[in-house]
Amino acid sequence: MKFIENLNSNPLFTFGGYMGAIGGLIADFSGIPYAYLGALGFAGSLASIGIWQEYKKHKLYEKPFLPIPVVINISNPADSKNALNQLSNVIEREGFKDHLKNLEKYFAIDKDNLIFEYKGDIFDKEKLKDFLKILKHEIEKLERKIPQGDQFYIAYIGPVSVSILVGAIFAQDAVKIFQYDKSINGYKNVADIKDRIIKENIDTLEKFDFIEVIKENNEKAVLAIDISSHKINFNSSAIQSFGDIFYLKSKESKGTISYNDNWIRYIQEIFFTINKLQTNYKEIKLVYSIPISIGLGLGMAIQNYWKILLTNYQQGEYKDLIYTDEVQYFL
User: Parallel, antiparallel, or unpaired for β 220-226 and 186-193?
Assistant: First the structure.
């Protein structure tokens, strides 16, 4: 039984056993009245504490998975600790009482292990790549500390461009993605991703219209993805000078995605389109007006296998950031 295995490795329970055996012998030799009973009582107390600890941990083990809240902040002044507390509140409402305390008490995971901040310039590619390697390493360390299955609850704060790179780190994981909602000054779960759901084959586009803006059989192509408030500027030289141009235009007329909409379907359709394009083009440049949560999910899907140039929108321009296949995630 898992409970017995963990109990035998509990330091207090083990130490209590040694104290009961060795302390009892010493007490017998000392000749002090009731010393044996005292040693036995002390040893029993230690063992009882160990049993209680493992029982509490075992109750957590009974659940099919444990949520691991993670906040990833990329060069943003927002309060990462506040974001973590909000994720914790969500998890507690799901029935995991005192979750942050339990993670620290039973799994040696404290709050600082759950917040990852990059404070540099995202255009410093070497520094950014080093951060992503460290992030991947730290996420794997968290997974090793949880004996049963885990699911990451992710709050990402930062530019969409880097969210795609971050998403690739969680490609093999079960995740819940949370999008910040200004109206409640908090986070809402918009996507629950498990297995290969974001790579499932689809036959038609339901969320987008696919438009061929310029097709001249170049070796490179631009895919413009338009969901959020700012509209893609097709007159930008960053778009016009690269190659053929294709456009995924959201059918949603509100200029953004409803929190109740099927966010996973958007990710599936973007991945489906990129997958088709990469068979005909050596390079694909992505320009986008999309929520950061879509970026995270897209990164989980495309990872770093294809030559895809990510861009960062700032000051009205789409600036080249990095190719996805430049990033190697292992130290």
Answer: unpaired
